[in-house]
Design brief:
Number of helices: 3
Strand content: under 5%
Shape: flat
Order of helices and strands: HHH
Length: about 110
């Protein structure tokens, strides 16, 4: 019943395994100097997967608030003449919601960079 799907999965698995094998046979071994991390000529001081400080999360939310605002304002600006006063009221409601988000971020200290 599922022989076609099983056959395709088997062919795909063999194809991927073959590509990995060809890569292993033809790849040049990396030199230790070329695979070290590099940050402007200095050795990195922290692990590459280290966590971000929690103070960056409110700043990220603030950026997303402004980014989403622009995402909705560009198409709105194109069709506002066709939609009339309804579009203007809807945009001011949206801007009010974004303004509330900015006020919340301000209260939480996302605008303090020190």
């Amino acid at each position: 019943m599922y022989s076609g799907a099983v056959g395709m999965a088997l062919v795909a698995s063999l194809f991927v395994a073959g590509l990995y094998t060809v890569h292993r046979l033809l790849a040049i071994a990396p030199q230790p100097v070329t695979v070290l991390p590099f940050q402007s000529g200095w050795r990195p001081e922290e692990h590459p997967l280290s966590r971000y400080h929690v103070r960056w999360y409110p700043a990220t939310l603030l950026f997303l608030a402004f980014d989403v605002e622009m995402l909705f304002m560009y198409p709105w600006a194109v069709v506002v003449a066709n939609l009339g006063a309804t579009a203007i009221v809807e945009m001011f409601l949206f801007l009010g919601a974004v303004f509330v988000a900015v006020l919340w971020a301000w209260r939480e200290g996302a605008l303090r960079w020190v």
